[in-house]
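Researcher: Here's the sequence for the chain we discussed earlier.
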Amino acid sequence: MLMVWALLLMSVTVMGVVEYIRYSAEEAVLASAEFRALHLAESGLTVGLHPNVRRGDKSLKQKIGTDSGFDVVINYEGARIPINFISDERLREAVYELFLRWGLNSDEASIASESLADWVDTNDTVRSNGAETAYYESLGVFELPRQQGFINVDEMLLVRGMGVVDRLKPDWREFFSVYGDGTIDLRTAFKETLIAISGASETDVNNYVTRRDGADGVPGTEDDQRISDSEAYRLLGLSGARGQAMQSILTSDDDVRRITSTGYVGEKRAQIIVIARRGDDRSLTYLARIEE
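Model: Thanks. This is the structure I predict for it:
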């Protein structure tokens, strides 16, 4: 009996050791794949940051080996609404229209958009549906708003009315930027943003975006079409005084790039996003780096 028990104990021990080794080996393989994917994302980022590389360049999409490589997409930060310029009435009205499209009623959209504008302006004068110091103090929150721009888009959640936006549109962060220069980039702006800022019809914007982004429907890829500003305005139905009013806010001159590099090894993915400004001398100023 003792020998039987000893054999059983040894068998259990050996099986445990074998299982541990198998698990450790699998973990090592996964860790190696994650590291390689991150390394490939870094390599793609290097390519994307090169001054001679342009959006849609074939070098931005490279396969290395049978199941690994990197895919880089270059877009412009002007695709997103520059929230720190929302005191500009045209941008505030665009945000209001965007909130309506996301399902907020007119009162909710007005409160959120005007409170955002009150947050970034430099005075303590309250807009009709906005919020300044007195409102936040009534909630027991002091030293808000700071009367300056947002540090990051998550900070927008501190603003009156943004809780409703967060509930109805969980991915709202994708539509805003703290790095923009006050303009919206025609080359990469989201469809909803273009409708809200330009007042163009959804049909015209759909036609423009379809032609601009090519067959894959993704801005910043090889099949994109280059469209001049004048042609973009024609496609969007912006003419006369309305078109002239948009010229200072709808442009293709954004110099702040959002470079998204994705490295992959099998099913493993690693993504790095760098936001950088390209100077006239081709120098780069890094504004942000995000790893996902």
